[in-house]
Design a protein that fits this description.
Elements lengths: L13 E7 L3 H9 L1 H8 L3 E3 L7 E7 L9 E12 L3 E7 L6 E10 L12 E8 L6 H24 L10 E2 L2 E7 L3 E7 L4 H4 L7 E5 L2 E2 L3 H8 L7 E6 L3 E5 L1 E2 H8 E4 L2 E4 L2
Antiparallel strand pairs: 1-7, 2-3, 3-4, 4-5, 5-6, 6-7, 8-15, 9-10, 10-11, 11-12, 11-13, 13-14, 16-17
Helix pairs in contact: 1-2
Length: 268
């Protein structure tokens, strides 16, 4: 399998392959069209011009935050395009501002032992160039988790099978990511959520929960995936300790969203 990533590897690199049972051109549409990107990543808007040197953007609307921020926007420039094979991007990290390097490679699979198993291919994601310290170090962990989850969701959608199960409980925290021996850096907090009620704010660092050290986002999700609404946990922050009682997904949805027919929309 030829690696088309057009940059040298660095110490902090995300590198994984997802097998997907669809034709390469189907995945390519999801990666490069506004319709595909907004559906896949849950975006408000997207622009991915297939022209080297052109700017791109991916934008999420996310109201109801303590910070008052209404949008999260990822930007950068297109570095290299090989239709149906490679989309390489200079990707700007939103919190640290560092330029990193993302390649999405669509590699066709081949039949084994002459058996035709239908259309299928591999999506190879490599994201390199993350800093080894500062905010960019936290962003490396955040991107690592979210890319894996996002690509897994993409595969589930294209193969028409269930994706990752919905969690039972929520704390109302959004993270930049985690760093070993430091904890999780809070990006934002949802208004009215258990985290806001406990006094957690953007830029706080959560070191542990219930005595369990937090080195990555996976550590936190392992903890909260075992919680039921109404259960509490003691969160050790860099400068204080607070108690957070998690809430149900339904309570969080009803506080933030309004149902119109079969669709949920953000409260204004």
């Amino acid at each position: 399998m030829a690696n088309l990533h057009p940059w040298p590897r660095t110490e902090n690199t995300i590198d994984f392959i997802q097998h997907i049972r669809v034709a390469p051109e189907v995945i390519w549409r999801e990666l490069t069209t506004e319709e595909g990107l907004t559906r896949w990543l849950g975006l408000t808007s997207a622009s991915m011009p297939l022209e080297e040197g052109a700017p791109f953007h991916l934008t999420w609307e996310a109201r109801g935050k303590v910070s008052g921020e209404k949008f999260l926007r990822f930007t950068g420039t297109v570095r290299k395009v090989i239709p149906n094979r490679l989309l390489a991007l200079d990707w700007i990290l939103p919190f640290g501002g560092d330029v990193t390097h993302l390649s999405l490679q669509v590699q066709p699979s081949f039949s084994m032992f002459g058996v035709d198993v239908g259309p299928e291919c591999d999506l190879w994601l490599i994201h390199s160039g993350f800093p080894t310290q500062g905010v960019g170090f936290f962003e490396f962990d955040g991107h690592s988790r979210h890319w894996r989850q996002g690509v897994g969701d993409l595969a589930a959608h294209l193969e028409e099978r269930p994706g990752k199960p919905t969690p039972y409980a929520l704390a109302g925290l959004q993270f930049v990511g985690g760093a070993p021996d430091l904890g999780l850096l809070v990006y934002d907090v949802i208004q009215g959520s258990p985290a806001e009620q406990a006094g957690i704010r953007p830029n706080d660092i959560i070191r542990s929960v219930e005595g369990m050290a937090l080195h990555s986002l996976d550590d936190f999700h392992d903890w909260i995936d075992e919680r039921k609404p109404g259960e509490s946990g003691e969160f050790e922050l860099a400068d204080r300790t607070v108690k957070v009682t998690v809430e149900s997904v339904e309570d969080a949805r009803n506080r933030l969203l309004i149902k119109q027919g079969d669709q949920w929309t953000l409260r204004r």
